[in-house]
Amino acid sequence: MTAKQAPKGLGAPGRKFWRDIVAEYDLAGPHEAELLAQSCRELDLIARLDAELAGAPLTVMTRAHGEVSNRLLAEVAAHRRTLLSLLRELKLPAEPPAAGQPGTLRAVGSYDRRSHRRKAS
User: Fold this and answer.
1) For 20-47, how does the pLDDT look when each residue is reduced to its tens digit (9 = 90+)?
2) In the Cβ-directed half-sphere of 116, how many Cα atoms lie within 13 Å?
3) Residue 118 lies in a domain
4) Is residue 42 part of a domain?
5) C-alpha–C-alpha distance, residues 98 and 83, integer Å
6) Domain span holding position 22
7) Among residues 14, 23, 73, 92, which one has the fewest Cβ atoms lying within 10 Å of its Cβ?
8) Is residue 55 part of a domain?
9) Residue 44 falls within a domain, yes or no?
């Protein structure tokens, strides 16, 4: 897998995210490419869970506990937290730069002085 090539097996949301990120930013190395790949897989999984939830009831009946929240709600929430954690590790900026302002984007977190740089045009 090169920094330009999306990992095999990604769904549409993951492939789009990969393309968007590598088009805008330079990855620092294979460790960031792997974090990005894992983020893309999480996006694909979240999209699948969201699709399942779209037609599913928010609560289900169980013998032991009666009416309870659909387990998919907890699963999608857990995967969203995982995605957020991966994106924090990538240290991408929370907001895109203003139009027409190339250059260094603000660093994420005061503990890490490194910031991602936009690709040269």
Assistant:
1) 999 988 888 899 999 999 999 999 999 9
2) 25
3) no
4) yes
5) 25
6) 12-90
7) 23
8) yes
9) yes
